[in-house]
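Example S7 (structure tokens).
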């Protein structure tokens, strides 16, 4: 285990929102809900699996006995995700806090032109290259939200842009089974073969149900394909308190957890032991003044701590919190919201933190905000690191203090020279001496955009084989040709 992983696991002050008794009660209430209320499963294959396992099927509605769910949970196992070169990158079973960032979004603020505009396919290169260069972004997300790309090839195109410019693990959000299979075919080029990709996956996949206790055709198709092809999956419901779940944290936890259990049960019935990355879900709050969903309301910090506690109660890494801002611009509000969500991630030991650096409640990808998020993660990681010393280390320090004496000056002492570099120093935040006559040469936004532009211009991910890149070009052309034929 590397040093940063150890620091993430040994937290300064663990934030526990749930006791083990409360977590167990939520689990039991979720099981009761699945058995009594059930869930809608529109895909026949999912109903067949549940029916064979002993569930009660009534049309699309399936009521799942607790024993079926418990058997599925018993087959889960910790996994490790790899980078594009087959090297271990995310050992999720170790409890390391990691951060992912989105390579594409609905709107963009680029490094050279910070004006907000629609995100286009041409933005994929600088976005993925920038995120690959940031040391505190551990993995990338390719969801497919470009304004100039047809829906049928959105996620495939997003993945191709990410894998060209980054060697980090990539989370994909395929729109359907066909899209996932396209991505796996492309990923196998980089892994060497489909079997090598299964053994050392650098691609993992998200499946998101569209409503409480109601799966959708597309998310079940993706979930079942992940099981069949042994693609590591993040299955996460998307509850918003007061909107699609009760307006209370306990009520939201019970309902969203029942959704998670239903999906995982289908997944494990399809292929017992198929890799699952995490437990948990994204918590939101509907702001009744605007009916918009808030990602950063203070109640969400407690809710995410509870989601993490519940995931760890299951013995699984936690998914949930998004290190982003409700604010649409990178301003004081956005900075404070990013800082809070980053700190909560470390205090709650949330292993998979996603959407780092997004603005506007998950709608805006900003180069400057990505650079600022990277620094906020580094700050929070250092701030939550426990002190690491042995009792015997104090004797030399006592000798140093005695040597310097009362009222002494440590500035020129060799001990300071040997140790001052151990402190964390910001790259973007200012600690300069302020001179009111000179003012500030560049404000924060200018400094962030300048660094983003420099990173985009200078950074190159470890290169892929040219033959692999040519084959990826051929696959992309085939995807687009198929899309044009259908239209």
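Recovered sequence:
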């Amino acid at each position: 285990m590397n040093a940063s992983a150890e620091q993430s696991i040994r937290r300064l002050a663990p934030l526990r929102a749930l006791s083990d008794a409360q977590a167990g009660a939520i689990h039991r209430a979720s099981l009761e809900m699945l058995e009594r209320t059930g869930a809608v499963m529109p895909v026949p294959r999912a109903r067949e699996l549940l029916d064979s396992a002993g569930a009660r099927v009534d049309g699309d509605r399936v009521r799942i006995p607790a024993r079926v769910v418990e058997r599925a949970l018993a087959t889960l196992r910790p996994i490790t995700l790899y980078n594009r070169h087959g090297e271990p990158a995310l050992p999720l079973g170790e409890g390391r806090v990691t951060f992912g960032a989105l390579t594409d979004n609905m709107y963009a603020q680029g490094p050279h032109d910070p004006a907000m505009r629609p995100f286009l396919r041409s933005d994929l290169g600088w976005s993925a290259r920038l995120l690959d260069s940031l040391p505190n972004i551990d993995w990338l997300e390719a969801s497919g939200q470009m304004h100039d790309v047809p829906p049928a090839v959105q996620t495939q195109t997003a993945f191709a842009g990410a894998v060209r410019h980054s060697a980090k693990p990539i989370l994909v959000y395929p729109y359907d089974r066909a899209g996932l299979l396209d991505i796996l075919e492309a990923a196998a080029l980089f892994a060497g073969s489909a079997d090598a990709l299964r053994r050392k996956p650098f691609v993992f996949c998200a499946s998101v149900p569209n409503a409480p206790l109601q799966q959708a055709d597309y998310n079940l198709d993706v979930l079942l394909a992940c099981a069949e092809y042994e693609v590591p999956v993040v299955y996460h419901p998307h509850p918003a308190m007061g909107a699609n779940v009760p307006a209370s944290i306990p009520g939201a936890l019970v309902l969203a957890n029942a959704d998670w259990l239903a999906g995982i049960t289908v997944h494990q019935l399809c292929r017992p032991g198929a890799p699952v990355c995490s437990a948990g879900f994204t918590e939101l709050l509907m702001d009744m003044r605007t009916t918009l969903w808030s990602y950063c309301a203070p109640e969400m910090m407690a809710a995410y701590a509870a989601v993490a506690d519940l995931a760890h109660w299951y013995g699984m890494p936690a998914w949930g919190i998004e290190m982003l801002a409700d604010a649409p611009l990178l301003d004081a509000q956005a900075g404070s919201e990013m800082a809070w969500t980053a700190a909560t991630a470390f205090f709650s030991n949330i292993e998979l933190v996603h959407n780092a650096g997004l603005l506007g409640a998950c709608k805006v990808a900003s180069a400057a905000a990505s650079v600022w998020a990277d620094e906020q993660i580094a700050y929070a990681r250092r701030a939550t690191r426990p002190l690491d010393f042995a009792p015997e280390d104090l004797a030399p320090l006592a000798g140093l203090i005695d040597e310097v004496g009362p009222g002494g000056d440590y500035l020129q002492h060799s001990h300071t020279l040997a140790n001052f570099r151990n402190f964390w120093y910001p790259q973007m935040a200012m600690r300069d001496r302020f001179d009111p006559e000179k003012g500030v040469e560049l404000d924060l936004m200018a400094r962030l955009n300048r660094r983003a532009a420099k990173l985009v211009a200078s950074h190159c991910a470890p290169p892929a084989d040219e033959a692999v890149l040519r084959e990826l070009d051929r696959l992309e052309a085939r995807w687009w040709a198929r899309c044009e034929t259908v239209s």
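Notes on this example. The two ends are 50 Å apart (CA to CA).
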